[in-house]
Amino acid sequence: MTTNTQIERLYFIGDIHGQQEKLAQLLECINFEPHQPATNHQLVFIGDLIDNAPGFSGNHIALLNQVKTLTDQKQAHCILGNHEFNAVGWALKKADGSFLRPHTKNNYLQHQAFLTAVGEDSLEHQQWINWFKQLPLFLDFTTVRAIHACWDNDAINAIQPYLNKDNSLKEAHWHNAFDKQHELYALCETLLKGPEQTMPVGQFFVDKTGKKRTQQRIEWWHDYHLQKNAKPVLIGHYTLNGYPAKKSQSVVCVDYNAAKGDNPLVAYEVCLSAESAINFGDECNFHYINKASYANAI
What we know:
Calcineurin-like_PHP; Metallo-depent_PP-like; Calcineurin-like phosphoesterase domain-containing protein; five-stranded mixed β-sheet
């Protein structure tokens, strides 16, 4: 799906993880007025609206309701993040009664804050799962694109038969997306979680949940410009630190770990009628709260 309905300016907003107050502060920072009639300035949520550490101080319900209202009113777009994807897998059962995403202790800890907020197996829980299933995996605004973790042309082309016209996953294929023996599993892993490679024997790292991992992420953005028709692309997912900056001339990440503490919620502004829509502009295109946190990095 290509989206370019007389939109002049887009604000791509990074992973929020239930931090509704940070979203309110960011919208004030960019002078965006929620609940107004649709304008030619729109928001693009890059996914991972949900999940956080147990006991965090955010508000999942308020955040989800605000984002859905903005999308319903045509003030915003929202794409699927790996946490919304995992939420669907947590809720859906296989034919044998087990769940698409295993209900392990580690998976539960990642998802607990959202489940507590909505009430697991409640009507509200099911309503949000149904909404997550309707979210597109990526968006193309003619001159700029958005996807949660990785734009890979081969994966984008291969996944087309499994998608609706709006780039959401067809209802019949959600089970395939969690089946490691099905090609759709690897495609979703690449697009929503990013490509990985196996670390040398004996090497590993411990992730933020305390899990030991032997797979490390590939920094695919360095070679992205070599892909055919490599339009500029906005991503989230990578939990960056430090002063917001481009990953490459054609790739910008807007996930700066807003899930935690005073870390900023970041947005990147793109003017579709300007050169910045062809090659990303400099760091002045970033908008974020808590700018004082970066005084020493400038």
